[in-house]
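The protein record filed here:
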Amino acid sequence: MVRFKNRYLVVEIAHNDGRAMEDARKERDLLDAIRDAVKENFGDVGAGRAVAALSVRYADAMTGVCVVRCDRERARAVRGAVTTMEGFRGRRAAFAVTHCGGTVRGARDACVRRLSARLHALVAEGRVREADVEGILETQGKIVATAVTN
């Protein structure tokens, strides 16, 4: 029996208008947007190969950090498609893959690091209070741990 090998991409979404993502159906809409980007960049055959194992494991609306799982052989195609995306839900945004790894633990740790960095940036912008950061990080760390592993 052959083990299915995955790659986990930690993606950061920065909307140009500075507002956060809407919460409703964010994972599903993000998955559809990534599938469309793969199809646009690599055609039907590339999309058919890459989309089979593609899933959004975690997405945080406030910080714009998400974890995408894909097949190891198609990770470069998915990463390329994500970085060429120009918008999400009708709003212009920049997409950056900040981590690509093969283990759940590595993806979880990278995601928590990005969440921490984004939360501290939001504190600097005055959108989040400093006193709330530790509680948010603890809660989001637990959510990431359960979402990425399942």
User: Anything to note?
Assistant: The first strand starts at residue 6 and ends at 15. The first helix runs from residue 26 to 51. The chain has one domain: 6-149.
